[in-house]
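Dear U.,

For the methods section draft, I wanted the exact inputs and outputs in one place so we can describe them consistently. I've listed the two proteins in the order they'll appear in the manuscript figures. Please don't edit the C-alpha cell lines directly; just add comments below if something needs changing.

First protein:
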Amino acid sequence: MLSFKWRLMFAGLALSRILQATPPLTTISDTLFNADGTPFNGVVTISWPSFEASDTSNVAAETEQIQVNSGVLYVQLVPTTNANSAAIYSVQYANLGVTQFSETWTVPPSTFPLRVRDVRVPPGSITGSGPAAATLISIADVTGLQNALNVRATVGTGFAISRSAVIDATGAIDGAVGNLGDCLHVDGTSGPCSTFSTTFIDGEIPAGTLDGSNASFVLANAPNPSASLALFRNGLLLRQGGDYTLAANGVTFQTGAVPQSSDILAASYRISVSIPGVGFVDQETPAGAINGVNAAYTLSQSPSPSSSLVVYRNGVRLTAGVDYTAVGQAITFGSTLVPQTGDTLVCSYRTTQ
C-alpha cells in the first residue's frame, strides 16, 4: 500500500495538472442602471459557442445566467480576441422574465477588471477572432460571385495611370493612347486637338474721307476669306466686284458708286475663323431664273441652323416667313414678291460640317 506521503504527492501532481489546464480569465465588473437612473435588477444571460482558447484549452458551448442585484454585475470569461478559433459572447438582459436588450461581447485578455463598455461590440461590427491559419476561398465557393465579376469591366492591356479611360473593343477599360496634349474623341481614339479662331469684326467704319470724290477706304484688317466682307452703305448691302473691289484690307469704290459726304459705311467680316463642325457660305447667288415669274430658288447647301440664313434682294435684307420661306436648300418667294429681271439675290448662311 502507498504511504500517506506518496498519496499526498500524487494528489498534488493531479491538482497541479488541473490548475495548469484552466484557461486564462478576464473579469468584467460594472454597475448597470435603467434608463430612469435606478439600478438594474434582473438576469444577464451569456451564451457562447465552443472554441479553443489562446492556451489551446477547449471551451465548451454553454449558457450562463448571472443574477444582477442593485446593478452589480460580476463575471469572469475566457478571452475571445486572441482565441485560436472564432468566438463571441451573446448577452441578453432580462427583467421580470422579459428580455430588455441584447448585445455582443468580445473579451480581450486583461489582468485588471474591465467594464461592459470595454467588451461591448457596436452594432454592425465584425466580431470574433480568426483562425490561426488562413483559409483560402475560391471564387466558386461564393454563390453568384463569378456572375457578378463577369458583368464588371476588366482591366485592359493598355491600362495606365494618369491617362483618360476608354472602353476597348472587348469591353475592357484601357488607357487612351496618344500624346498627353492630344484630344480624346468619343470613339476612344485620340489625336491633335483642332485649333480654331473666332475673330469676327462687326459694324466697323472703314477709314477714309467721305467727300463724294474719295474712292479709297481701308479696313483695320484684311477679311479672310474676302467673300466674308459684308459692306453696307446707308443700310444697303453693296456688291463686291460690282459696287467696289477688295484687295487685302483696301476697298476701292467703282466710278458712280463713290460714297457721298452724308453716307454711312459699315463693314462686317471674319478673319480666318475656324470652328470645328461649322462652315460658312458667303454671298451665294441661289440657283434659279430671275425673270419675274420664277419664285423657287435653290441653295448649294442646307443652312444649319436654318435661322442663320440671310437673304438680300438688291441690297435690302428680306424677312423670313414674310418675304420668303426656306426649307432645307429651297427658297420660295411669295406670289407678289417674285424677283424681277435685273434683281440681284445674295444669300449668306452657316452649315454643319
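Second protein (the one for the lower panel):
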Amino acid sequence: MRLLLVELTRLRWRRAIFLLLLACVVVPLVLLVGQAWNTRPFSEADIASAKEMAAQEMSQPYLEEQIADCEATPENYLGPGGVATDCAQAMTPTYENYLYRDALDLEAMRTDVGAAAITILTGLMMLVGTTFVGHDWNTGSMSNQLLFEPRRLRVWLTKALAVFVTGAVVGIVVLALFWAGAAILASSRDVSAAPGLWTTIWETQARGVVAIAVGGLLGYSLTMLFRSTVATLSLMFGVSIAGSLLVVAILGDAASRWVLPTNFLAFVLGGFPYYDSSACSYSPDGMVSGNCEQTLPMVDGGLFLMVIVVVATGLSLWSTQRRDVP
C-alpha cells in the first residue's frame, strides 16, 4: 500500500499529467456545453427571421408556376395518390421550414456526444499512462527506483494499479458530472427520458469507465515494453491511422468488423452497427434492395479489445522480468 501511495503521489505531481487530467475534465464539459447550444430552443429572433424568409419565398414568381405544374401532374410532386387540391398547401412555404435544429435527445446524446466523451477520455488516459512511466525511463530514474524495490514484478504491478485507479476515478467523476449536467439540461427543457433509458445510460457509462481505466493501463504497458514515450505514441498513431487503412486494404468491404473504432464503440454502447456487403440483398436488376448493416455485439467488441490488452500486458510483463534495466 505504501508503494502504491508513492506512485500515486508521483503521478499526481507530474505537470504534464496534471494538464492531461485537467483536459479530462474540461473537454467533456465543453462537449456538453456545445450540445446544449446546438439543441437550444428557438428564440423570438429566430422565429421572426424564419417568418421573414418564408414571406420572401412566397413573393417569388416561380412559386405560382410550381403550384400550377403540381396541379397539372400532382403525382409527380406529391407522389402516388396525390391530388391537385393539395398542391397549394403542400408547396406554400411556412416559417417552420426555416427552423432546423436538432432537439435535445438523451438517447442520441448517449450514442453521439456521450460516446465521444468516453473515447476522448480513453485517449487522454492512454497518454497519462505512457507519460507517467515514460518519464521514468527517459530520466533514468527507473533504475534508482529498483534499487529501493528490486522486485520488478511488484514495481510493475504497483505502477499499473496507480494508473488504473486514476483512470477509474477520473472516468467515474467526469462521466457523472457530464450526465448530471445532461439531466439538469433535460429537466430545464422538459425533456423526459424513455422508460429504461437512464438504466441504459448508466450501463454505458460503467463500460466507459472500464474502457478509460484499461486505456490508461494499455498506454502504461506499451511504454514499459518499449521504454520510450515516443515509441508508444508512434505505435498509437500508426494503429489508429495506418492500422485501419491496412485492414481495409486487406479485407475490403469486410474490414469494418475488424477495425478498432467499431469494436470499441460496440463494447461501450452495447452493440454497434457496421457495413457488411455479405448481408446485402440485391434485386434482379442488380440494385441493392436490403439492409447492408450488421450489428456487432458488445461481447464480441469486448473480446477483440481484451485480446489487444492481454497481449500488450503479457509482453510488457515478460520484458520487465527479462530485459536489463540501464
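Candidate sentences for the figure legend, describing the second protein: The longest strand covers residues 272-275. The chain has 14 helices and two strands.

Thanks,
Y.
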